[in-house]
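Cast an eye over this sequence plus tokens and walk me through the fold:

***
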Amino acid sequence: MTSDVHARTPADDPAPHLLLADTSSRPIVPGVAVLRMEMTPNREGTFDGAWWPRTRHVASQLPDLIDALTARLGPVARVGLDASAWDDAPGHLVIKGRTVRIDWSAVDDSTMIVTRGHQDHFSFLVIPSQATAAAARAAMAMAVQDGNSASAEQILMDTGIVPASPD
């Protein structure tokens, strides 16, 4: 089944493509993506960014993030997500006429891998939607800190976020 998501209005979702510097004086709301864009093989740190979706419904959350990433990286080909973090698991979404494949993992590690091309992979911390704004802000900042080597599990634990369990 193809999901083509265009029915939302700007008021439904916050702008998902704010850089960390842009969000430092603004409240962080669910759906905000914090990105550190270093596209070299020598980048330091575990994560290239962090994402705080509003709900566990991937078809309503992923399109805006993909739009923001496409604006910064170019077309996104694939996204790898943890199946346990979402209520649905489509194999792909059609976003603004482009098909983005979604690969599902049972690893349950609160991460997302975005693939732009054969060798361009970006790793994101995925913050559970029920996290508080303060905890999400702390986790986002920790995830994109240069030289950070903490796992997603450690970042969430250090910021007091308990991963969501499936309903």
In short: The beta strands are 33-35, 49-51, 78-82, 92-95, 98-105, 111-115, 121-126. Residues 2 and 93 are 6 Å apart (CA to CA). The longest helix spans residues 58-73.
